[in-house]
Amino acid sequence: DFEVQHYRDYRATMKQSVMDRFLGGRGTSWARYEPHIKAGAAQQPIDGDQVTEDVDEPQEQLDYECAPVDYVHWKDFGHTVARTWEEVTAVWRKVYMTRDACVARFGKKLGDRIPLDATPDDLKRSDTENPEMKDHQRACVYEIWNKEDEEAIWLSKSMKEVLDKKDDPLELEDFFPCPRPLYATMTNESLIPVPDFSLYQDQAYELDLASDRIDGLLKALQVRGVYDASLGVEIARLFTDAGNTDLRPIKNWQAFAEKNGLKGAIDIVDLAPIAAALKEAYEAMEQIKNQVYEITCISDIIRGQTEASETATAQQIKGQYASLRLRSMQHEVAIYATELLRLKAQIISGFDPQTLMAISSVDQLQEADKQYIEPALQMIANKPLRNFRIDIAADSLVQIDEQQEKQDRVEFLTAVGTYIGKAAEVGAVAPQLVPLLMELLKFGVTGFKVGKSVEGTIDQALEQMKQQAQQPPPPDPKVEAEKVKAQAEMQKAQMSVQVEQQKAQIDERRMNMEEQHDMRQMQIDGQAQQQD
Q1: What pLDDT was estimated at residue 173?
Q2: Sheet with strand 139-146: strands edge to edge
Q3: N- to C-terminal Cα separation, the chain
Q4: What pLDDT, on a 0 to 100 scale, did the predictor assign at position 130?
């Protein structure tokens, strides 16, 4: 994000590559690593002792690093002969370098020997011996990347020798420092594209011819004719100097009237056939333009043309069909942009950790995210394409304005607020589902670009939820009150049972005592009767 936002190379390269895809049929670009070195403090002698007589040289320090992408003209790019891009074993490009650039890249001794053998195309037809043209001369250096030998070679055809050679300089996963070119129409037999203009070049020629014919007819569509010179110049001045309601005197009106007046004195060229031919030419041009629109997949709805009688549904259907025909082009551009960003990502992963932390503004991160800085640096340095997934959707290539950003934020807050409300109701009924609900919330937030800044806070809240889920839940006051009430009812019931049991025992004892009393009374009565 830092590279794309702070440097114009990526956006400019994408624009130029897309332009080449439509004009030349092939858009190409090249990624590279560019360190910037600055002079550091000179080494000072220890304790002020001069160890040698040499003057201490200042140390070189890394100032900053970047991973620019260069636009390569479609004529300056080449590769080995192949039917598909997967069969290509080597790619190269032409780099036009000044004398100072040659010295800075290859050293003083070799840089001064490289001939300046290339000039712009418009200067090649001029006087190359002119001293004023020397400032425009460049050295054409070929940069060749051979995938089979995994080496990069720099050479000049004029010198017929290798200027430099390095083994896998960038250590990229696919070795090539360039993505698959943005091709126009191709077949499976060759990587030579067919530019879109070739598909409708016959119609374009017809349009030029029709425009030329219309121009000639427009020039012929003017009042021209002859008049009777014996009547003087007053007749001709009717068309040159006369204004509105202007009358001209005629001498010998009687003879003028006998010659049928103006009809007999003037004969004007008939413009009806020219106007009819012009109308036919315009209709023919419209037909040719419609053919071009059909070939190039440009619908009326895309060009903003419609009819008042068409319904909104009809316009929507036309727009959908047009988008279907253009979607393949958009998808190819998205893939090209994705591969170019992947190359930048691999180069950036090799930056110094201090550079990565500086461009990432780690000091501005939230506290919840700062704990992930060190793990992130370790993950970036370890095969970034295996740890990251970089994709670009075709819809994201559309320019986003401030109003759209506000709408996205409102949509994000609305969606998150609605989800949190529903999740709170579910979590109250089933607390064991709270971690799952938080994971679903995180899944939804990551789908919003505007929600990237709160992902760390959500992760922290998720961890807290998981820890709380592992602990036993606190007792519910209502449940505890019900338990106490139930225990009290149970104790009351037990006491009632005990009282009833005691009463039964007392009644049983009383009955036993009464029976014993009755038996004793009967014995006494029996003894009394016996005595009587």
Answers
A1: 85
A2: 77-79, 90-97, 139-146, 151-156, 161-167
A3: 132
A4: 53
Alpha-carbon gap, residue 314 to 368, rounded angstroms: 51
Cα–Cα separations (whole angstroms), residue 295 to 25, 99, 184, 490: 16, 47, 14, 90
Q: Residues 131-159: pLDDT tens digits?
A: 555 566 788 899 999 999 899 999 998 88
Please give the DSSP secondary-structure letter assigned to residue 8.
S
| Concatenated DSSP letters of 503-520 | HHHHHHHHHHHHHHHHHH
Query: C-alpha distances in angstroms, 205 versus 19, 199, 212, 293, 345?
Result: 22, 12, 11, 15, 45
Residue 29 confidence (pLDDT): 94
Residues 237 and 99: their CA atoms lie apart, in Å, by 71
- CA dihedral sign of residues 473, 477, 481, 484: positive
Residue closest to 442 by CA, chosen among 408, 425, 465? 465
CA distance 137 to 264: 73
Q: Check: CB of residue 46 under 8 Å from CB of residue 105.
A: no
Q: Which residue positions in the chain have pLDDT lower than 50?
A: 45-56, 122-123, 125-128, 301, 394-395, 398-400
Residue with tokens 């961890």, as numbered in its chain: 463
The pLDDT of residue 154 is 93
The pLDDT value recorded for residue 131 is 54
DSSP letters for 186-234: EETTEEEEE-HHHHSHHHHHHHHHHHHHHHHHHHH-S--EEE-GGG-TH
Instruction: Write the DSSP symbol of residue 399.
Output: P
Q: Which residues pair with 226 in a beta bridge?
A: 267
Conformational region of residue 107, where left means phi above 0, alpha means psi within -120 to 50, and beta covers everything else: left
pTM check: above 0.70: no
Q: What is the DSSP letter of 329?
A: H
* CA–CA separation, 61 and 69 (whole Å): 24
Place of tokens 């413009």: 271
Percent helix, strand, coil in the chain (nearest 5)? 60, 15, 30
In one letter, which amino acid is 414?
T
